[in-house]
Amino acid sequence: MSRIVVVGSINMDIVNQVEKFPLPGETIHGKGVDYLPGGKGANQAVAAALAGGQVEMLGAVGEDSFAPALLESLGRYGVGTKHVLRKPGTSGLAFITVADSGENQIILAEGSNGQVRPEDADDSLLAGAQAVILQNEIPWETNLRVMQACRRLGGVRLVYNPAPVRPIPEEAYGLIDLLVVNETEAEGLSGLPVTTAEEAVAAAEELVRRGAGSVLVTLGSKGAVYSDAEGESLFAPARKVRAVDTTAAGDTFIGALVAAGSNGMPIAEAMSFAAAAAAIAVTRPGAQASIPSREEIVRSLAENS
Fold first, then answer.
1. I need a labelling partner for 287 at 20 to 30 A (CA). Which of 27, 46, 66, 254 fits?
2. CA atoms within 13 A on the CB side of 230
3. d(CA 105, CA 16)
4. How far is CA 186 from its chain centroid?
5. Strand-strand pairing, 11-18 and 33-38
6. Tens digit of pLDDT for each residue in 13-54?
7. pLDDT tens digits, one per residue of 159-195
8. Distances, alpha carbon 57 to alpha carbons 5, 188, 280, in Å
């Protein structure tokens, strides 16, 4: 079983269900509220673990009443939590509004995620991992420390999901083995429009030109494209399903992709595997609760082959 380390955010998602999103200044009635463990880092860790990886989480929770539930959820899905730190103050919170269409709007309050320091990322945890996954919900200085450590240690594949999007320093691109972005992030980083698969390939090639070893652009219902420094270009179609809640779709794709690749699956097959996982996730409400197991993903692939 592959060993994967996820360094990133752990949030409690406070989810409001609505018929449609309110207009500015408008007050509407909600249809119910749920408290669901989430956070991009934690979601990707759960997805990787359920897809067949041996996963350790490095992050932080606060000293509030949400912390035990967040740790319990990670452990329940098979994610190791001995490197999850306790920090003063509140845990990270995500205020999520989900419309009947399945689309969502999210406001983040970083809480303890903002206190994950570079010195918290110890080499002993990163050494020997097949892959390390990063996002942008902890401080950039910590991400950079992890990137540099993975390159220095050697043999550790660094997967970076720059969400929420922020500019990547030029010197950091060369530390990234796989950059995973959606349309908005691809546009923001490359400066190119991304509305079609062809445009996504052009944006991916621009980001490879800047130094990333490979780039994967997820396009929601339009699928995903991949380009790398060796000139390989791939496309994976998305599964057609009725979306209930898209909250953790991207995180599910990334976790499943990394677990599949770390277990030796070629990138084209790993993309199809990840697309099947994301398609299952959007048919279910919630973040971690929506993420499928490896058995469910394999069964879905067999049924739709």
1. 27
2. 4
3. 10
4. 15
5. antiparallel
6. 898 999 999 999 999 999 999 899 999 999 999 999 999 999
7. 999 999 999 999 999 999 999 999 999 999 999 999 9
8. 6, 28, 24
Closest CA to 5 of 153, 199, 111, 203: 153
Q: What is the CA radius of gyration of the chain?
A: 18
In this structure, how many other beta carbons lie within 10 angstroms of the beta carbon of residue 304? 11
| Distance in angstroms (rounded) separating the CA atoms of residues 293 and 286 | 15
Q: Does residue 13 contact residue 37 with C-beta atoms inside 8 Å?
A: yes
Q: What does the alpha-carbon distance between residue 102 and residue 242 come to, in Å, rounded to a whole number?
A: 9
Find the catalytic residue in 13, 228, 245, 251.
Answer: 251
CA distance 94 to 297: 27
Residue 195: partners with Cβ closer than 8 Å, 6 or more residues away: 183
Provide the whole-model pTM: 0.93
Average pLDDT, the chain: 94
pLDDT of residue 248: 86
Between CA 50 and CA 294 the distance in angstroms is 6
- Ramachandran region, residue 52 (left: φ > 0; alpha: ψ -120 to 50; beta: rest): left
Token pair 């796989």 is found at: 178
Exposed, middle or buried, 277 (CB in 10 Å: 0-12/13-18/19+)?
Answer: buried
Question: 204: closest CA among 244, 175, 243, 173?
Answer: 173
H or E segment and range at residue 11: strand 11-18
Give alpha helix (H) positions in 163-285. 183-190, 197-209, 249-262, 267-281
Burial class (CB in 10 A: 0-12, 13-18, 19+), 303: exposed
Task: Tell me, yes or no, if 251 is annotated catalytic.
Answer: yes
